[in-house]
Design brief:
mainly alpha, 2 helices, about 0% strand
């Protein structure tokens, strides 16, 4: 399993373009991950703001 030190060493070995690609990927993962958590929490809060209830039955 890679260690932080080995990942840093690999990043240093990459050229500027490769490092930029990794940075863009990490930004996506971190930012979108935090947005997903935020949206999930918002949906839960809105959905259960009036308490838990059963959905309406459709005929």
């Amino acid at each position: 399993m890679p260690s932080v030190a080995s990942v840093k060493k690999d990043l240093e070995a990459l050229g500027t373009t490769g490092q930029e690609e990794i940075l863009n990927y990490l930004e996506e993962v971190i930012v979108l991950g935090s947005f997903a958590t935020e949206v999930t929490n918002e949906v839960k809060e809105n959905r259960f703001s009036k308490g838990k209830s059963l959905p309406p039955l459709w005929a």
